[in-house]
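ok new one. same drill as before - structure tokens go in, u give me an amino acid for every spot. 199 of them this time. try not to just spam alanines like last time pls lmao
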């Protein structure tokens, strides 16, 4: 295991974890972690990665809740960063996490087509449900199936071996792992669901 430390206003540290490492093994685990916003999801994600033998880097950083905040405070973190938008399908129990490049926008029509539902049925997931039912902090969502009801769609355009960064449940943790490993652990559907933001 190696630790990369970044100094200055954008300080964070990256912890490279092997396939059999546990978050608890490196001193990140805090018994009170589940009491911080997103701590429950963070613990479940870390457990999934450990149980599936996925190699990853855990980035601990100052609290950021938006892409704009990340670009300003921890720009190193935004390289190959995927943002995750949480949706629900009206009159169903379906919850969908859609991950696209942080500079792209989610194309609702394409998401609807990938899900086989009408555009009118696709709605942003309420923050209360996100936090209380699923255990994620708003601004810390990552494309992980921490609950069986969650479906994941990853935007196409990344190679299986590309390293990507995704929300770690809290606003202070980001996981970095291979795109193929992320797709496998989240049982994701890969489809074009983004549109590039105008410059």
């Amino acid at each position: 295991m190696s630790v990369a430390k970044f100094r200055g206003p954008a300080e964070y540290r990256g912890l490279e974890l092997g396939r059999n490492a546990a978050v608890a093994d490196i001193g990140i685990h805090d018994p009170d972690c589940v009491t911080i916003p997103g701590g429950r999801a963070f613990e479940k994600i870390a457990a999934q990665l450990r149980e599936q033998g996925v190699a990853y880097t855990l980035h601990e950083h100052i609290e950021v809740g938006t892409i704009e905040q990340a670009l300003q405070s921890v720009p190193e973190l935004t390289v190959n960063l995927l943002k995750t938008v949480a949706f629900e399908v009206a009159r169903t129990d379906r919850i969908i996490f859609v991950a696209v490049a942080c500079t792209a926008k989610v194309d609702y029509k394409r998401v609807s087509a990938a899900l086989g539902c009408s555009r009118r049925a696709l709605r942003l997931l309420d923050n209360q449900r996100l936090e209380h039912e699923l255990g994620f902090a708003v601004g810390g969502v990552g494309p992980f199936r921490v609950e069986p009801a969650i479906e994941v769609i990853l935007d196409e355009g990344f190679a299986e071996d590309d390293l990507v960064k995704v929300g770690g449940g809290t606003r202070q943790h980001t996981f970095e792992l291979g795109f193929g490993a992320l797709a496998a652990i989240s049982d994701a559907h890969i489809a074009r669901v983004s549109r590039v933001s105008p410059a």
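Residues 3-196 form a domain with the YbaK protein fold (CATH 3.90.960.10). and btw The first strand starts at residue 3 and ends at 6.
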